[in-house]
Structures are given as structure tokens and as C-alpha cells.
Hints:
Elements: E1 8-10, E2 22-24, E3 30-35, E4 38-43, E5 50-56, E6 62-67, E7 76-81, E8 86-90, E9 95-100, E10 107-112, E11 119-124, E12 129-133, E13 138-142, E14 149-154, E15 161-166, E16 171-175, E17 182-186, E18 193-198, H1 207-213, H2 231-235, E19 240-245, E20 249-254, E21 259-265, E22 288-289, E23 297-301, E24 307-311, E25 320-322, E26 335-343, E27 346-353, E28 357-362, E29 367-373, E30 379-384, E31 391-396, E32 400-405, E33 415-418, E34 426-431, E35 438-443, E36 448-452, E37 464-465, E38 474-480, E39 498-503, E40 508-511, E41 521-522, H3 523-531, E42 540-545, E43 551-556, E44 560-565, E45 570-576, E46 582-587, E47 600-605, E48 610-614, H4 616-620, E49 627-629, E50 634-636, E51 643-648, E52 655-660, E53 665-669, E54 674-679, E55 686-691, E56 698-703, E57 708-712, H5 730-734, H6 783-793, H7 821-826, H8 834-845, H9 855-860, H10 865-884, H11 904-920, H12 924-934, H13 937-947, H14 952-957, H15 963-979, H16 983-992, H17 996-1005, H18 1009-1019, H19 1025-1040, H20 1044-1053, H21 1057-1065, H22 1070-1082, H23 1086-1102, ...
Parallel strand pairs: 45-49
Antiparallel strand pairs: 1-57, 2-3, 3-4, 4-5, 6-7, 7-8, 8-9, 10-11, 11-12, 12-13, 14-15, 15-16, 16-17, 18-19, 19-20, 20-21, 22-23, 23-24, 24-25, 26-27, 27-28, 28-29, 30-31, 31-32, 32-33, 34-35, 35-36, 36-37, 38-39, 39-40, 40-41, 42-43, 43-44, 44-45, 46-47, 47-48, 48-50, 51-52, 52-53, 53-54, ...
Helix pairs in contact: 11-12, 13-15, 15-16, 16-17, 17-18, 18-19, 19-20, 20-21, 21-22, 22-23, 23-24, 24-25, 25-27, 25-28, 26-28, 27-28, 28-29, 29-30, 29-32, 30-32, 32-37, 32-42, 38-39, 38-40, 42-43
Amino acid sequence: MAAAGGVRVLPASPNWYSSRCSDASSDGRLFGFAARHRVCLLEIGGAAPAFYGELIGHTERISGFAFCHCPGQSSLCASSSDDGSVKIWDTEALAPVVEHSRHQNAISALHWSPLVKDLIVSGDEKGVIVCYWYNRSDSQQFFPEPRTVFCLTCSPHHENLVAIGYKDGMVVIIDISRKREVLHRLRGHDDEVHCLAWCPVSGEERLSAWQDELPVVPSEEGEVPNGELTPDTTTKKGCYLASGSKDQTVRIWSCTRGRSVMTLKLPPTKRRGGAVDPTVKERIWLTVHWPPGHPTEIVSSCFGGELLLWDLTQSGKRKWTLLGSSEGQNHSRIVFNLSSVKHQDKELLFSISMDRDVKCWDLSTLDCIWTMPSLGGFVYSLAFSPVDTGCLAIGVGDSMIRVWNTLSMNNIYDVKTFWQSIKSKVTALSWHPTKEGCLAFGTDDGKVGIFDTLSGSAKNKPPQISSTYHKKTVYTLAWGPPTPPLSPGGEGEQPSVTLYSCAGEGIVFQHNPWKLNGEANDINKVIRDTNSIKHKLPARTEISWKPDGKLLALGNEDGSIEIFQAPNLKLLCTIQQHHKLINAIRWHHEHGSQPELSYLIASGSINATIYVHNLKSVIESTSESPLTIAEPFRTLAGHTAKITSLSWSPHHEGRLVSACYDGTAQVWDVMKEEPLSNYRGHQGRLLSVQWSPVDPDSVYTGADDFSVHKWHISKQEHTRPPQGKKSIELEKKRSMQPKVKAKKKKKPIGIGKSPGKQDPSDAVNGDESAREMLPEENGVSDHEEEKEAQEAELPDKVSTTVSKDTPSFAYDYSSLSLPKTFVAQKAIPVKKDPPKEKATPDASLKKRKPRSILPFSTFLDHRSKDEMHQDCLRLAACLKTKDHNEDVSPDLKDRIHLGLFTDRASLHKMIDVEGKHHLENGHPDLFQQLMLWKGDMKGVLQAAAERGELTDQLVAISPMVGYQAWVWTVEAFAKQLCFQEQYVKAASHLLSIHKVYEAIDLLRVNQFYREAIVIAKARLRPEDPILKDLYTSWAAVLEKDGHYAMAAKCYLGASSPYDAVKVLAKKGDVTSLKTAAELALISGEEELSATLSFRCAQDLLLSRNWVGAQEVLQQHKTLFGQRLVFCLNELLCKCLSERNPCNRKSPVPPCYHSWELNREASFLDMVVEVWQNVLGMDTTEQATCAWEQLHSVEHPPSTSNTHPKQVLFHISHDLSLAALSYRSATWHEAVKSILGAVTRSYDAGNFTLMQEICRIILPEGCDNLRHKLDSTHPQSMDACRSLEGFVAYGLLYDLWWNPPKNSLASQKALGPVLCPSEQTGLEKSYISGQSSSEETPDRSAVEMDETCCHTTVQRSEAESDSRTTSVDLVDRQSELNGCKVLLVEEIAALQNTQRDIAEVQQILAGMIRQHQQERNNLQENTTGSTQESNLEQSSDKPHSDSNQLNGKDEVKQPITLPELTKQLLKAKEKLAEFPDNLKIFPFPDVLECCLVFLHTGSQCPPKLLEQALDLLRKHGSAGAYRKGGRRFLT
């Protein structure tokens, strides 16, 4: 019905807490929003919105709604619902086109792709994204993140991009063309993402300007500084995305870079008179909208309902403008959705809010153009003011009253809202007959009050509330003349009219409007006194005063209507017409041309028929006693459900309109009993109706579809109500009708309802929750009627209640506590299965009768009359014989139930038979109860224990049998519980019989250690060994599972701190070691604590935290030496990093001490100074002690696999010893320690480090040191020679790598130079092959030639200048002269011998390996053929091995074992001939140095070249050296 016949509507409220449930069509014609399970469409073309129609089809709350914005499809839209379906609609036909239910979970977000005309994307609460192409009915699922989707939006520029916002703050961008592709995970928000909006313009060119201007880019994102972004990467493609989150920020993200580029924090705006209860804590909802015409502006919601327009180009704090300049333009509660559309030349923005208003804004002026109010609950009551014409009061279930000025010219929706102090559904309204703006209201929780709707500060002025509350829902309010004790003639001034209220408990109160805080009177008291009534008065359900104030009509629950005469309420007559509860009574108006019509009274009840009575004759009769009327004046039949409201036309005579539960309103010509016009525009049951006081052709109706309609009588196509049920339900209901024709018209409130397939109860937008039934429609909860009504409604599937929304959004605060038990029982959370749902309320309404304990005898006592008579005769006969012979038990034969009336023995027989029946039918509990009555408990306990059927109740009763039986029962029950794996309960029962050890053991065996320890600690002596045992057992289990801290607590509890320390240290991370060390210290384990502290300090060293390491070490005196080492290590690292600054940023910045350093002194002097000043090493004793501590520690030799930081630490250890020796002037120790540090770096393969250490420790070379040594001490002289060798070795390579500029040409002639990085690589590979200088080089500078043939490295001049400045040749020659200490012939011979030994050992090892392999192969293989092939394979191997060893160019014959042994012996004898002093200290490879000398060519003095060539000829027989020296020797 697209706005059939100019219907004006106050629609249902938009749904709350949805990211997109409203949208405007692209042609600017329609705006749609989801209201509960329907979509309401408004035409937005004119100055004010007009109701266009509704999309009806979903059965649960709609969670998403969007129009199609593709050209030519502006009439299509899509919606998603909690019923799991997504529907596509045609707004022209108001009908669904297609639907799908691909989601398994509640859908939380939906969007129609702006680029692909048939693509709808939706996401659900479990994180599944469904893309649905409806033209080809194809769909695809994505699962980018297992999180709750809150919002999603398709890109307007790239058809495959979809942005998704999640509940936990994550934003993800996916590409739907690639199944598993997540393009970006945007992290920044730390709470729900409420809305996402793409920039309407693609590309990211604009950003550079923003970034430069705006200081808003948050530093915590860790972004790249602006300078590093090259312009072309930013502008290539991509688009900005805005997101709004509950964390109160709007972020703008760059899609190309996948990070946030701007963060806007919501400003604390000043709330401007919002109509919100301050006690209600409001959620924030931050929605954002990027209007198509404004790429640099974003609209967002704010805290209280204000809307902000952000200017993204403006820097500084004030980047936003508030929409709505004048008072009252803004929303008063949070805003959920924004959407915009271009209409004619204006850009319009639409907003929906928690304050239930839909607003339209002009984006150019930022003013609100119109506001459309909406309703969040059933419309219970409508009332036109008799004074202020056209002023319609509307009582709604959302706890608010709306006052609608229907005659307003400039704003057709001029509505004021009143909510103060109401807090419950507004169920009744009545205007004062003469005083303007005085409106009485009644609520669902029994409150009666009066509002002044005219007051200037109306928004804030609370109503007056009567101090007398009804116990149940207020049904009706009426103003009428005062009756005793307030009637005229009382003392003092009296009001001319008082307020009467009638409510669900059946009582009518009279309130004095001048003294609402005084007590109200129950008018039944006056009625009793005046009419001398003694019997119980009926419950009142409706009240109506004749307009002249002379007669009062009361409608009753039993269907009768009583007419009383004012002021003393004398009963004139009773109308006995309806036989069901009266819902509505209305007197005809007084101002017609036929005065006799004013005596007409129309009434409607739960019966569908309306009766009109003429009371003229009754009023004029003089009879003293009250009359009874049983014949109606007119009968208006046609409705098919209960009548809820009636209204006479003030413009006609004898015209009546009725509102009914059949979903229609009917206009009648009463005198002719003719139906004139039927309105079917509502989608629910009608609850209220009023005839327009100004337009004879207009009627206003309110219904449980949350809306008020104003419609025209003359424009309706139907004249009478639908037969049976309203349209859609017609067929379904018809099958049910015959059963309940007579009584069917009462509907139990809240279970199914006819029209509009929905249950009103959808707690969508806080609108009323599942309890939103009509408050007992003036009705009493008559069980019979409820039952019938349920039967009648069973097939009515559509009424599935959806109370499951309520918990998460319980907005309708009123519905949380309902006074009526009847209504509350109906509010049952319901699943989606309709038939079951019906059964549930039924079951809860009828209490289940408990099962009889004596069913057999009860059954026998309910047989036929003849059998009962026979029972009497048999019983009399038995009792007679009993009298004569007392010892004989009467023979009852098969009538054992008569044992109830005879002796005990017969009763026992009866009990036994009943018990047997219970056991056979599977009710052992009833059998046990019977045995308890009989007194035979022992047997019951034994039987139950054998069958494993003991219960808590039986155990509780067992003490009546005796102490032993009780103990036995508890033990048996404990066993039974263990079988059921209820160990803790079993232990508790064992405790009840004081079996503490057994209880503890039971828990321990089943690994309930915590509970066992609690019991043991609480019940046993502290020294009991079982406690320690429990702790250690639990600790063992915890340790095994890796819960070390918990295990440590257990060991501490068991008084073994040593174990606690050990287990804590097991994890091995810094914090665990630190804690373990402190724990050991507390426990007195000094040594262990020191060990752990040292381990911890070493770990801290790896993360370069020297400050932390020193803190850990300083607790122990025994670690003083290590503190010195750590201090030196820190200074060394500092020194190294200063000499070689690294460009690469370290992930963990070093943590240095801020010591004052003497940079002038040498390194070791500087170290000693820090030791003295900072670590307090003042005395020689301290230094000696530290030296001894460190000397006792031996570190393994370094290899190329040792961690560089470990190598550096060991070097620091050696240098600390050297520094201590320096201080005490023990120079021979110092030289050994320095040599140790240098060789350690050489062995580790770190040549550069070796050079650096030589430079730092010996900046002037070794001469100074040599002078201080005792020349008579041969060992120290040998050490010094070795040290000089290494220093020269470093220098030699330096000179070779950094030739003077002018020698580059000659260098090229010689061959290319290896650049340092390559050389270092060679060095490393070389050194990795030997632990000192004793092994053969695998690939060293000796193979330089080969390398040079393949690589030609052009080095820039700047590079060649990196270490040494250009020095003239003379200088270099003298420096090279200084390196001649490397050319020692006896050391060359020694190294050659060592190489031979190593080579033989290697061949031997290879043979042993091969032999083992052959043996393994023989064992493994069973068939001969495989053995042979394996042998062949293995026999090939030695050749290849030896080939590798002896150089590729020579093929040697396999060598035999005896020959090898002979070679080895010969080499070892040769080695023994060398003096020992040569072997003690390592020395650089002499032959390698010869090759380097030769490579320096013309720079090298000829004498040295001769010496080098000579050494190569003598000792360079090994393959590698022969090859390396080939070109020099030929």
C-alpha cells in the first residue's frame, strides 16, 4: 500500500545499534529505515516527508538495509535480518524480488556494492562474509577473521575491495576476487568499529598536504616520517577510508600504505537541552559519513546526539563545525546512521537516532529541514484535547507520551514528547474537559499522573504523580464530577471535576487533582453504602462518564455494565449483554439535532460484537429498584476478534468507529446497523481509535505495529471487516475456527495475533520487549480463556516472539519489571521453532500436578459407582470379622486399597504393592519415600547402594536407621560418586564421617591437589608428613606441565626452597632467573644464588642491558670479578660502536650506564679508573681477589659458531685479567691475557674484531709492552712474539686492502684487489676450518689467484680511502718492514708438520666413517643384490674423498692403513723435535702471510719479497699453497 489514499503516519522507530539500517535511494525520492522486522519507506520529495509504504516479509529484527546505488536500479534495495535471510526488494511493488539464507549466524552488517549492480555483501556475528550475486544466484563465502563483524562497506572505486570493521577494533580490507586475500589489517582502534566510509574520490594525492599541515598524525602508530614516502607511491592508486569507533575516535586510513594517516578525537561538546534521563548511562555510537560532493569533509556523530562536520584540510584544534545552529535542531540521544542524497540542487543528509527522530539536514547550510518523530512501542491510547482542538495525545509503550499538534501548518509532524517520571508503558490518557494542557496519564505499572503540556519549560517539568498506585496496569482514565467523600457540600473548596482511574486489579480510584499526594478513594465503598450491597462486587475493567456528568457507566470483568447516578452512585440499571470482559464503553455526544441520541451507549468486549443500548427509558423510569437490560438497541456484528476501542463521530449522528484485534478499524452507521468503511492499513492489532475533531472524513488509529495512522473514510476500498481473519492469516486460521467459535475472540495477550504477521514483541529498538502484550487488555487472567486462545493461535506461526534481543539492548526500562504475573509468564525466550514456542507458554501457565505417591489405590478409588459400593460392603464385612477375632488380619482379597481403612498389616500390604508399582515404572524416589513412611529404611539403603542409586536425600535420611548404617551409607555413596567421577563431592562426604586421610588420598589420587591441600591444612597437624607429600607430588605434576612458578610455590610450601629455586630457574628467561636468584638469597643458598645471578646477567648482556646486569650482580661479593668483566665489556662495546657506527637500527636499544669517562687515557687506564670510581675497587687486596676469582674461570676456545656477543664477553674476561695485571704491574700475565683476547677473536673467525682489539689495547704496537717484560722470562717473551705476530698480521692485511691511490694502476696490473667484505668472507671460511693455526686452511688468501680470475672488483676511490689516508710508498715500505716478524722459518716448518698430521687424521676419520657405513648397510640389507650395489656405492666414496683432500687436479691412488699410520708416526716424531716454546702460543699462518707479501708487489721491500718466496719454496708443498704461489714461483 504505497501511501494509500494519503495516509499520514507516525511510523515505528528505526532500529538501534546497527551500522547501516537506513539509506536514501540514489534518485532522491525515497528514504528507508528498518523498524523492527519491517522497512518503513518515506517519500522525501516535498517540504515534509510522506509515508510511502512498508516492506514486509522478515520475521525477526532487521539488522541491515541499503538501496542499490547503481544507475537504473534506484528502486531496488536489500535488507538482512536476524532470521538469517537477506532479501532484495522492489520498492515500486513493495514486494521481495529474491532472497537467500546463506548465513548460519545472526547477520550484523550489509551493503549493496556501488559498482557491481547485483552484488550484495553481508557479514555475521561469527565473522563470515557472504558475497551474493542475485542475477546469477551465486554466492561466495570469506572468513578473513574469526571476530564479530560490526560493519562493512564496499569500495566505490574498486569493485573487489570490501572494508570490514570488527567488534574488537580491527579493520580489515579484503579483495573478494582473491579467495583468501586480506590486503590490510588496520590496527589502531581499541573498541568496536561502528561505521566505515570510503572517500568519495579515489587516489591519495591530497594527503601530502594534510600530512604537512596537520599535527594530528598520532605518533604511537610508529609511521614512517613524511620524508621517506616517495610521492609516486602515494598517488598511484588507492583511496582513503574513514572509520568511527566506540573508542571516541575517527581514523582516516590510507589503503596503499595500510596505516592510519589521521586521527580525529571527539570533542567534549556541550549537550544542548537533550531530553534524556540523566540516570540512564548512555552508550556512545560513532557513525561516520563521507558525503559524495565533499571529499575533504566528513560528518560524524558525537556523544549526545550532536552531529559534527569535520574539515580535513584545516589544521589546529578546531576542525569541526556543529550541525544545527538553533535550539532543538539536534538529536537528544546518540545517532546510529547517516546517509545523504542529492535532491534537486540540495545535498540532503538523513540521520536516525536513539531519540526516535528521523532528521533531514541541508549540508550547505547545516540546518535541520524537517524532523519525523517515530514510536518505539504499542500505541495504547489516543486522546484529542476537548479544549485545544486538533491536539492529539498518544500513549506509547516506550514509556513516553507524544502530543501531536495535527493542525500545525508549517510542520505536519509537530510533536512534543513527554517522558519525565513515567518509566513504564503509557496505557491510558485523558484530557481535562475544560483546562487547557492538562493531560492525565496511567501506566503499565499502576502509576497515575497529570502533565501540564503547555508549560514553557515543558521539556523539563515533571508531572504530578498521584500517591495512590494501582497494583496492576491502568486501563482507563476519565474526568467526572466528584463523588463522596469529595462531592459538593463537603467542607472547603472542591474541584469541579476529579480524575477516575480503573486498573487491572478491578478497582476504580477517585483522585483529587488538587491534592494528588492525598489518598485516593475506592468508589466501590460509596457504591456499597449507597446501594446497601453486601455481596462481592465484580472487578471493574472500564469506566465512562456521560458527557453531562450525570451518569457513570462501569464495565465489569463478567461482561456486565452497570449505570450509576451521580453524585452518590445510585445503581440505576445493569446491562447483561456481553458475557466477556468489557474493553470499551462510549456515550454518544450531546450536541446533535436529536437529543434522544445522547442516551446511546456503545460497548465492546472480548466478544467481537459491539452492542449499542438506549438508556432513555431507564433514566426516565421511576422504579426504586435497579433494572436489568438484556436486549440491545442495535447490534453491530462483523469483527472477528476482540474490540479494543470505540469512538463516536463528533460530526455525525449515530456514526461509530471501532478498533479491533482483527487488525482493522470499522466505521458503522449505528441506526442502520450498517458497516460503512473498513481500514486495513496497519500491520498489527489495533489498540486505540479517535475520530478527528476537525475533519469528518478522518480517523486516527494506533496499533501494536508501533504506529499511528491518519486515514480517510471515503478513500477505503473495503466496507466491512475481513471475514474469518485478516488477509494473510485467513487460510491458516480457518481450519481452527470451528473448535472455538463461541469463545475464540479473547486473545491471550502476547501469544499470536492476527494481523501483520509479526509478534509485536520484537525488542528491536528498545521498543518493547517480549513482554509487550496488552496489559491484560482490561482483562483478568481467566485460565479457560487463555487456554482456548492458545488453541486458536497454535497455527499462527508468525507470532514467534523474539525476546532474545532483549538482553543485549534492553532499552525499554519499563518492561523489566512488570506487575502482572500473567504478562510476565508470557515473556518466555523463544527459539525459532514456532510450534514448540506455543507449547512453552502453555506449560508455564498450567502448573504441572505433582505425581501421586499412591497412584494404584487412588485409581482403585476412582472406579465405577458399582465397584465403589462393593468396596463399602467388603470393608464393612472385614471390619466386622476383625471385631470378632482381633488376631486375624482381615482378608481384603484383591481390594488391597482398602488397607487404608483397616489395620496396619493391611496398610503394609498396600504400601508394598504401591512400592512395587513405583519401581516397575521407574520412580525409585517415590518408592523410597513410601518405605520411609513405612519405617523400613535399612532395606531401601542397601538396595539403593547395590544398584548405585544412592542420592543426597537418602544419605541425609540414613541417620534415622542408626550411626553404623549412616557411616556405611556415606562410604557407599562416596564410592558411587567416584564411579561418576564426582571426586570432590565424594571427599566432602567422607569428611562428614571424619575420614580425613581417606578423603585427602581420594583427591590426591585423582589429581585434585589444590582441594586435598585445603583439607589437609584445615584438618591435620601442621607437621603431618602427608602435607609435604601433597606439595611435592603436586609440584612434580606442575613442573612436568611447565607451570614453574606454581611448582615453586608448592616447594616453598613443602619447606624445600632449594627445589623451588631450581624449578623457577628451569624456564631460563631473565625474569625467572632473577626471581630464582633472589629466592635463593632469601633462603640462604648463597652459592646457588650467585650462579643464577650470573646466568641472568649473561642473558641481560645478550639483550645489551648492562645496567640490569650490574644490578643483578651487585648483590653478591663473590661476583665482584664478574662485575669488573661486565663493566669492561660495556666500555668495550661502547668503544667499538663509536669506532664503527652502524646504520642499521637495532630492535633493542643498548642500555648503557652514564659514567664519566677519561677519554684522554689509554683504554685499560680508563677501565681501571671506572672500576675505582664506580665499583669501588680501591685496595690491592680487592684487585688480587678479583684476579683470582677470574683466573679460576676457564672459557672454552671460540669457534666460528660461537655467538658474537659470547665471544666479546670472553674477550672482555681476558682483557679484565689483563687490566688487573696492568694495575699490579705483573706484565707477563698481562701479555698472556691480551694474547688470549686477540687469539680468541682470531679463532672465532672475526678478523675485523681482532684488528679493532689490537688497535684499542695496543694503539702504539707492542714495543712499549716488550720493554716492560723481563727478558729472562722466556715464556713471556714467546707470548709477546706471538702477540706481535698477530698485530703485524692485522696491519699486513690493512696495508694490502688499502693501497695508496697512486698505486691503483700498478695494482690493476697485478690483478684485482679483494675488497674487505670479500676478504672477510674468505677469512671467515678459512678460520672456521681450524681451532688455532694448527689446521689446514680450506680456502684462504692462498687461493686468491683463483678468486681473482673470477671476480674483478672495481673499488671507488672513496672506498679505497676508507682506512688509511694516502701514504707515500716509503712509509708503507717501512710499515711492511715492521711486519717481517711474521716470516719465522721454524714456525712455518712447525705449521707444515701440524698440517700433515691433520691431513692424515682427516683421511683416517673418513676411512672409519666409511667402514661403519658398510657394516650398517650389510646389517640392514637381506638380499644379496642390494648388498652388492651398496658396496659398490660405498667403495666409490674414498676416491672422491681423497680427491677432495688432495686437490682437484691430482688423482691419488687409495692409500692403505699401514702407510697412513707410518706417515702419522713420522709427522709426530718430527713435531716432537720442535722446541716446546714454539708450540705453546698460537701464531698466524706464516705461508699465508708470505702470499700476502707477494701480493703487495712493488710496495714491499725486495728483501722481504725474497724471504717470502724462499719460505714458500721450502714449505709450500701443500696443495693449496702450491696453487696460491704458482704464479710467483714460476
